[in-house]
Amino acid sequence: MGRKGRYESHVQPYLSQIQEWCQDLDEKQIAVDRLGIAVSTFEKYKREHKELQEALKKGKQQLIADLKASLKKKAKGFTYEETKTTIREEGNKRVQIVEKFKKYAPPDTGAIHLLLKNLDPEWTNDDKTTVDLKREQLELAKQKAENDNW
């Protein structure tokens, strides 16, 4: 039996970590910075190894779920705690004072709009005339492409 390949030594032991790395890094950063392999090699391993494909897929699915949850939270508004630390001189002593504040982040209209547009097929605030014109423009472009033998 020959020696282990780079996949077995550089990628396979890190499959569970690759899922986590998908939260903060793109595939190039995972390959080069974390695994120490070339992007082309990483692409080859993705084609050849289903378990690597699955790790990346699960990592990206988790990221998408987290982003959706964050967007929903921002759309609804939320309360959070902020801490302020100050140091004062009182006589010959330095006193550290920690103050905690409850704050409220109001609902974000941009997040609301995005969620409604993507989650509710009946909700739209796009100008119907503009949407119709864009559809007509697309149809004309298709017809022109067909006539020009594209």
- Please tally the helical runs, counting DSSP H or I stretches of 4 or more residues: 7
Low-confidence stretches: none
User: How much helicity do the residues have?
Assistant: 55-70%
Query: H/E order of the elements?
Result: HHHHHEEHH
Structural class: alpha+beta
Distance between the termini: 54 Å
Average pLDDT, to the nearest integer?
89
The radius of gyration over CA amounts to 26 Å
User: What proportion of the residues form beta strands (DSSP E)?
Assistant: 15-25%
Largest sheet: 2 strands, antiparallel
In total, how many beta strands? 2
Summarize this structure briefly.
The protein has 7 helices and 2 strands.
Can you give a write-up of this model?
The mean pLDDT is 89. The protein has 150 residues and is α+β, with helices and mostly antiparallel strands. The protein has helices spanning 6-11, 15-21, 27-35, 39-48, 50-76, 109-119, 128-147; strands at 78-90, 93-105. It has a domain at 6-107. 60% of the residues lie in helices and 17% in strands. The chain is built from seven helices and two strands.
